[in-house]
Amino acid sequence: MIDFPNINPVIFSVGPLAVSWYSLSYIVGILLGWYYANKLILLYPIGISRQHTEDFISWAIIAIIIGGRLGHVLFYDPEKYLSNPIEILKTYEGGMSFHGGIFGVGVAAYLYCKKNQIRFLSFSDVLAIVAPIGLFLGRIANFINAELYGRQTNVPWAVIFPHSDGFPRHPSQLYEALLEGLFLFWIMLYFTYKSKFLLNPGRMSGIFLIFYGSFRVLVEFFREPDVKIGFIFKYFTLGQILCIPMILLGAYLWNHSTKNTIKNGDRLKNKVNN
Protein backbone atom coordinates (compact mmCIF):
# COMPACT_ATOMS: atom_id res chain seq x y z
CA MET A 1 0.00 0.00 0.00
CA ILE A 2 1.19 3.51 -0.83
CA ASP A 3 0.75 6.41 1.57
CA PHE A 4 -1.29 9.26 0.14
CA PRO A 5 1.03 12.25 -0.43
CA ASN A 6 0.35 15.13 1.91
CA ILE A 7 -0.20 17.82 -0.72
CA ASN A 8 -2.45 20.77 0.01
CA PRO A 9 -5.05 21.12 -2.81
CA VAL A 10 -4.61 24.91 -2.47
CA ILE A 11 -1.22 26.13 -3.67
CA PHE A 12 -1.53 29.55 -2.06
CA SER A 13 -4.20 32.03 -1.07
CA VAL A 14 -4.35 35.80 -0.75
CA GLY A 15 -7.37 36.84 1.27
CA PRO A 16 -10.47 35.25 -0.28
CA LEU A 17 -8.56 34.38 -3.46
CA ALA A 18 -7.20 30.83 -3.52
CA VAL A 19 -5.21 29.20 -6.30
CA SER A 20 -5.68 25.42 -6.37
CA TRP A 21 -3.84 22.69 -8.23
CA TYR A 22 -7.10 21.96 -10.07
CA SER A 23 -7.47 25.49 -11.41
CA LEU A 24 -3.76 25.59 -12.25
CA SER A 25 -4.13 22.36 -14.26
CA TYR A 26 -6.77 24.08 -16.42
CA ILE A 27 -4.63 27.17 -16.97
CA VAL A 28 -1.40 25.30 -17.74
CA GLY A 29 -3.25 22.74 -19.89
CA ILE A 30 -4.85 25.44 -22.04
CA LEU A 31 -1.57 27.38 -22.44
CA LEU A 32 0.46 24.29 -23.33
CA GLY A 33 -2.28 23.18 -25.70
CA TRP A 34 -2.26 26.59 -27.40
CA TYR A 35 1.55 26.46 -27.74
CA TYR A 36 1.48 22.96 -29.24
CA ALA A 37 -1.41 23.86 -31.57
CA ASN A 38 0.65 26.73 -33.00
CA LYS A 39 3.50 24.32 -33.74
CA LEU A 40 1.10 21.98 -35.54
CA ILE A 41 -0.41 24.61 -37.82
CA LEU A 42 3.06 25.75 -38.88
CA LEU A 43 4.06 22.21 -39.85
CA TYR A 44 0.71 21.42 -41.46
CA PRO A 45 -0.95 24.44 -43.09
CA ILE A 46 -4.57 23.25 -42.92
CA GLY A 47 -6.48 26.51 -43.06
CA ILE A 48 -5.87 27.63 -39.47
CA SER A 49 -3.77 30.63 -38.42
CA ARG A 50 -2.07 31.60 -35.17
CA GLN A 51 -4.66 34.34 -34.76
CA HIS A 52 -7.39 31.71 -34.83
CA THR A 53 -5.81 29.68 -32.02
CA GLU A 54 -5.27 32.79 -29.90
CA ASP A 55 -8.83 34.02 -30.38
CA PHE A 56 -10.29 30.62 -29.52
CA ILE A 57 -8.67 30.47 -26.06
CA SER A 58 -11.40 32.60 -24.50
CA TRP A 59 -14.06 30.57 -26.32
CA ALA A 60 -12.54 27.33 -25.02
CA ILE A 61 -12.38 28.53 -21.40
CA ILE A 62 -16.04 29.56 -21.40
CA ALA A 63 -17.08 26.36 -23.19
CA ILE A 64 -15.19 24.11 -20.76
CA ILE A 65 -16.73 25.80 -17.72
CA ILE A 66 -20.30 25.97 -19.04
CA GLY A 67 -20.27 22.59 -20.75
CA GLY A 68 -18.49 20.83 -17.89
CA ARG A 69 -20.80 22.30 -15.28
CA LEU A 70 -24.05 21.69 -17.18
CA GLY A 71 -22.88 18.16 -17.98
CA HIS A 72 -22.44 17.47 -14.28
CA VAL A 73 -25.81 19.03 -13.48
CA LEU A 74 -27.75 17.10 -16.13
CA PHE A 75 -25.92 13.76 -15.99
CA TYR A 76 -25.11 13.31 -12.32
CA ASP A 77 -27.48 15.24 -10.06
CA PRO A 78 -30.32 16.96 -11.97
CA GLU A 79 -32.83 16.82 -9.09
CA LYS A 80 -30.54 18.71 -6.70
CA TYR A 81 -29.79 21.53 -9.13
CA LEU A 82 -33.23 21.84 -10.68
CA SER A 83 -34.77 22.18 -7.22
CA ASN A 84 -32.21 24.84 -6.30
CA PRO A 85 -30.82 26.40 -9.54
CA ILE A 86 -28.54 28.84 -7.68
CA GLU A 87 -26.36 25.83 -6.78
CA ILE A 88 -25.39 25.54 -10.45
CA LEU A 89 -23.27 28.68 -10.11
CA LYS A 90 -21.24 27.27 -7.20
CA THR A 91 -18.50 25.74 -9.36
CA TYR A 92 -15.98 26.33 -6.56
CA GLU A 93 -17.63 23.46 -4.68
CA GLY A 94 -16.65 21.06 -7.46
CA GLY A 95 -18.71 19.16 -9.98
CA MET A 96 -17.48 19.18 -13.59
CA SER A 97 -18.16 16.59 -16.26
CA PHE A 98 -15.60 15.76 -18.97
CA HIS A 99 -18.32 14.60 -21.35
CA GLY A 100 -20.14 17.90 -20.87
CA GLY A 101 -16.90 19.81 -21.28
CA ILE A 102 -15.97 18.14 -24.56
CA PHE A 103 -19.49 18.72 -25.88
CA GLY A 104 -19.25 22.39 -24.91
CA VAL A 105 -15.88 22.79 -26.64
CA GLY A 106 -17.23 21.01 -29.71
CA VAL A 107 -20.19 23.40 -29.97
CA ALA A 108 -17.93 26.43 -29.39
CA ALA A 109 -15.47 25.21 -32.03
CA TYR A 110 -18.27 24.70 -34.56
CA LEU A 111 -19.65 28.21 -33.97
CA TYR A 112 -16.18 29.75 -34.07
CA CYS A 113 -15.32 27.97 -37.32
CA LYS A 114 -18.60 28.97 -38.90
CA LYS A 115 -18.02 32.60 -37.92
CA ASN A 116 -14.45 32.63 -39.28
CA GLN A 117 -14.99 30.33 -42.28
CA ILE A 118 -12.60 27.64 -41.04
CA ARG A 119 -12.86 23.95 -41.84
CA PHE A 120 -14.46 22.60 -38.65
CA LEU A 121 -13.04 19.07 -38.81
CA SER A 122 -9.49 20.39 -39.28
CA PHE A 123 -9.95 22.67 -36.29
CA SER A 124 -11.37 19.85 -34.16
CA ASP A 125 -8.41 17.68 -35.21
CA VAL A 126 -5.96 20.19 -33.74
CA LEU A 127 -8.01 20.40 -30.53
CA ALA A 128 -8.05 16.60 -30.31
CA ILE A 129 -4.27 16.35 -30.66
CA VAL A 130 -3.59 18.79 -27.82
CA ALA A 131 -6.42 17.60 -25.52
CA PRO A 132 -4.41 14.82 -23.76
CA ILE A 133 -2.17 17.50 -22.23
CA GLY A 134 -5.08 18.93 -20.27
CA LEU A 135 -6.43 15.47 -19.48
CA PHE A 136 -3.13 14.41 -17.93
CA LEU A 137 -2.85 17.53 -15.76
CA GLY A 138 -6.51 17.39 -14.76
CA ARG A 139 -6.28 13.78 -13.57
CA ILE A 140 -3.16 14.54 -11.55
CA ALA A 141 -5.11 17.37 -9.92
CA ASN A 142 -7.97 14.92 -9.19
CA PHE A 143 -5.46 12.71 -7.39
CA ILE A 144 -4.09 15.62 -5.34
CA ASN A 145 -7.66 16.56 -4.42
CA ALA A 146 -8.33 12.92 -3.37
CA GLU A 147 -11.45 12.84 -5.55
CA LEU A 148 -12.81 10.43 -8.16
CA TYR A 149 -10.83 7.60 -6.60
CA GLY A 150 -11.10 3.91 -7.43
CA ARG A 151 -12.78 0.87 -5.97
CA GLN A 152 -11.54 -1.09 -2.99
CA THR A 153 -8.56 -3.34 -3.70
CA ASN A 154 -5.60 -5.10 -2.13
CA VAL A 155 -3.06 -4.43 -4.90
CA PRO A 156 0.39 -3.31 -3.63
CA TRP A 157 -0.07 0.20 -5.00
CA ALA A 158 -3.47 0.78 -3.37
CA VAL A 159 -4.00 4.12 -1.65
CA ILE A 160 -6.07 5.12 1.37
CA PHE A 161 -7.55 8.44 0.39
CA PRO A 162 -8.39 11.09 3.01
CA HIS A 163 -12.10 11.72 3.62
CA SER A 164 -12.90 8.23 2.30
CA ASP A 165 -14.05 5.11 4.19
CA GLY A 166 -10.49 4.19 5.18
CA PHE A 167 -10.19 1.22 2.83
CA PRO A 168 -7.31 0.94 0.33
CA ARG A 169 -8.46 1.82 -3.18
CA HIS A 170 -7.25 1.90 -6.76
CA PRO A 171 -5.61 5.25 -7.62
CA SER A 172 -7.80 5.37 -10.71
CA GLN A 173 -6.97 9.04 -11.29
CA LEU A 174 -3.39 7.97 -12.04
CA TYR A 175 -4.63 5.19 -14.35
CA GLU A 176 -6.53 7.83 -16.29
CA ALA A 177 -3.56 10.21 -16.28
CA LEU A 178 -1.40 7.48 -17.84
CA LEU A 179 -3.94 6.19 -20.38
CA GLU A 180 -6.01 9.28 -21.28
CA GLY A 181 -3.03 11.60 -20.84
CA LEU A 182 0.43 10.21 -21.60
CA PHE A 183 -0.47 7.17 -23.69
CA LEU A 184 -3.16 8.95 -25.70
CA PHE A 185 -0.78 11.87 -26.27
CA TRP A 186 1.78 9.43 -27.70
CA ILE A 187 -0.86 7.83 -29.95
CA MET A 188 -1.94 11.20 -31.29
CA LEU A 189 1.70 12.20 -31.74
CA TYR A 190 2.42 9.05 -33.76
CA PHE A 191 -0.53 9.44 -36.12
CA THR A 192 0.10 13.17 -36.53
CA TYR A 193 3.74 12.97 -37.57
CA LYS A 194 4.13 9.41 -38.85
CA SER A 195 0.90 9.09 -40.81
CA LYS A 196 0.22 12.82 -41.37
CA PHE A 197 -3.47 12.29 -40.66
CA LEU A 198 -3.99 16.03 -40.16
CA LEU A 199 -4.33 16.18 -43.94
CA ASN A 200 -7.47 14.04 -43.64
CA PRO A 201 -10.02 16.30 -41.87
CA GLY A 202 -11.78 14.47 -39.05
CA ARG A 203 -9.41 11.51 -38.75
CA MET A 204 -7.48 12.74 -35.71
CA SER A 205 -10.76 13.67 -34.03
CA GLY A 206 -12.00 10.15 -34.71
CA ILE A 207 -8.83 8.58 -33.28
CA PHE A 208 -9.12 10.69 -30.14
CA LEU A 209 -12.77 9.79 -29.54
CA ILE A 210 -12.20 6.08 -30.14
CA PHE A 211 -9.16 5.78 -27.87
CA TYR A 212 -10.37 8.14 -25.15
CA GLY A 213 -13.73 6.37 -25.01
CA SER A 214 -12.06 2.96 -24.89
CA PHE A 215 -9.57 3.95 -22.18
CA ARG A 216 -12.32 5.55 -20.10
CA VAL A 217 -14.51 2.45 -20.37
CA LEU A 218 -11.56 0.33 -19.18
CA VAL A 219 -10.62 2.56 -16.24
CA GLU A 220 -14.23 2.82 -15.09
CA PHE A 221 -14.04 -0.85 -14.09
CA PHE A 222 -11.51 0.24 -11.43
CA ARG A 223 -13.12 3.58 -10.53
CA GLU A 224 -15.75 3.97 -7.83
CA PRO A 225 -19.10 4.78 -9.47
CA ASP A 226 -20.95 7.94 -8.58
CA VAL A 227 -22.55 7.55 -5.15
CA LYS A 228 -26.00 8.78 -6.21
CA ILE A 229 -26.15 6.86 -9.49
CA GLY A 230 -24.27 3.67 -8.73
CA PHE A 231 -24.18 0.94 -11.36
CA ILE A 232 -26.32 0.79 -14.49
CA PHE A 233 -27.48 -2.67 -15.59
CA LYS A 234 -25.63 -4.02 -12.52
CA TYR A 235 -22.14 -3.79 -14.04
CA PHE A 236 -21.69 -0.49 -15.88
CA THR A 237 -21.20 3.12 -14.82
CA LEU A 238 -22.64 6.29 -16.31
CA GLY A 239 -19.15 7.24 -17.52
CA GLN A 240 -19.01 4.05 -19.58
CA ILE A 241 -22.48 4.61 -21.03
CA LEU A 242 -21.57 8.18 -22.06
CA CYS A 243 -18.45 6.88 -23.83
CA ILE A 244 -20.42 4.66 -26.20
CA PRO A 245 -21.66 7.53 -28.43
CA MET A 246 -18.12 8.99 -28.35
CA ILE A 247 -16.64 5.76 -29.72
CA LEU A 248 -19.38 5.46 -32.37
CA LEU A 249 -18.86 9.08 -33.46
CA GLY A 250 -15.12 8.46 -33.61
CA ALA A 251 -15.65 5.46 -35.89
CA TYR A 252 -17.89 7.55 -38.15
CA LEU A 253 -15.32 10.35 -38.38
CA TRP A 254 -12.56 7.84 -39.19
CA ASN A 255 -14.64 6.40 -42.02
CA HIS A 256 -15.68 9.86 -43.23
CA SER A 257 -12.09 11.13 -43.22
CA THR A 258 -10.98 8.49 -45.75
CA LYS A 259 -13.00 10.36 -48.36
CA ASN A 260 -11.41 13.76 -47.72
CA THR A 261 -7.85 14.97 -48.17
CA ILE A 262 -6.63 18.56 -47.99
CA LYS A 263 -5.23 19.56 -51.36
CA ASN A 264 -2.09 21.61 -51.94
CA GLY A 265 -4.16 24.63 -52.87
CA ASP A 266 -5.89 24.67 -49.51
CA ARG A 267 -2.58 24.32 -47.69
CA LEU A 268 -0.80 27.06 -49.62
CA LYS A 269 -3.73 29.41 -49.17
CA ASN A 270 -3.43 29.37 -45.42
CA LYS A 271 0.38 29.32 -45.32
CA VAL A 272 0.27 33.05 -46.05
CA ASN A 273 -2.12 33.67 -43.12
CA ASN A 274 0.27 32.06 -40.66
What is the structure about, briefly put?
This protein is mainly alpha-helical and 274 residues long.
Note down, in words, how this protein is organized.
This protein has about 270 residues and is mainly alpha-helical. The protein has one domain. The protein is about 60% helix and about 5% strand. The protein contains 9 helices and 2 strands, in the order E-E-H-H-H-H-H-H-H-H-H. A two-stranded antiparallel sheet has the order 1-2. It is globular and about 60 Å long. The model is unreliable at about 270-274 (pLDDT under 50).
Key phrases:
single chain; 274 residues; mainly alpha; two-stranded antiparallel sheet; 9 helices; 2 strands; globular
How is the secondary structure organized here?
Layout: E1 10-14, E2 17-20, H1 21-43, H2 50-76, H3 78-83, H4 98-116, H5 120-144, H6 172-193, H7 203-220, H8 238-257, H9 264-273
Antiparallel strand pairs: 1-2
Helix pairs in contact: 1-2, 1-5, 2-4, 5-6, 5-7, 6-7, 7-8
**Number of domain modules:** 1
The percent range for helix content is 55-70%
Give the oligomer, counting copies of the same chain as homo and different chains as hetero: single chain
Structural class: mainly alpha
Spatial arrangement of strands, main beta sheet: 1-2
- Rg, alpha carbons: 20 Å
- Note the total helix count: 9
Anisotropy-based shape = globular
- Compressed to H and E, one letter per element, the order equals EEHHHHHHHHH
Query: Average pLDDT, to the nearest integer?
Result: 89
Total count of strands: 2
Major pleated sheet: 2 strands, antiparallel
Fraction of residues in β-strands: under 5%
Which parts are unreliable, with pLDDT below 50 for 5 consecutive residues or more?
Answer: 268-274
Give the CA-CA distance, first to last residue: 52 Å
